[in-house]
Design a protein that fits this description.
Blueprint (H helix, E strand, L loop, with lengths): L2 E6 L5 H20 L2 E5 L2 H10 L11 E5 L1 E3 L9 H9 L19 H12 L15 E4 L24 E4 L9 E4 L1 H4 L4 E6 L5 H9 L17 E6 L12
Amino acid sequence: MSSTKVHIVATDKIPSTICDFVADRSKSAIAERGAFYIGVSGGSAAKLLCQGLPAIQGVQWDKWHVYFCDERLVPFDNPESTYTIYKEGLIGKTSLPLEQIYAIKPELSVEDAAKDYADKVSKVPTGDGRDKPTFDLLVLGMGPDGHTCSLFPGHKLLQETSVLVAPISDSPKPPPCRVTLTYPVINAARSAMFVSAGAGKADMLQRVLEGKEEPPLPAARVKLHSGELHWFIDQPAAGKLQAKY
């Protein structure tokens, strides 16, 4: 049974709230299954997690396995590399082993990089009757056009069901070449979370959470088959919502 929960949080409390949430999910997963499999994204959430998580006590970092919900096909020394944000933010500041952050191979073509990353993702255990790799938590972002991961409105990848990880070479947001998890993997997760703050997100947030658009916007297509989807938003971002949360 899936569910969606919306948490309206004071703007200045969002960093600590999301870091505590991620840490708590890790502790529960490790207690129940002995490891924590997380998919992370770039953007503002990456900075918040890398700033806040190292300070939290009691995190069993050696049990974490960090994957990427999507990644830009750029060298690791490029500031657009999400891998490098987490490497610099967590390695040496926590006891997370470097080999448990699973990077793409940016030297490959985008098609081969996606195949290689799909092999890595396939090592994530399945669970609870699912037939796809089952992440304990996916940390997702939503763009101003409603995209999530590198799944963009109107793009053919919204219909992709045959692969775990797909290449995209015509991203409307630069850089054009990326790899991304597909919905069969995203929606198999035990839990997922979005973080959205600021009045600039209010219109799109209302469309994603309450709109009945057809076809649905990419972020609105995140519907876990059996798990909890959490939205952490501040009051300005919630300003256009009609329902009470």
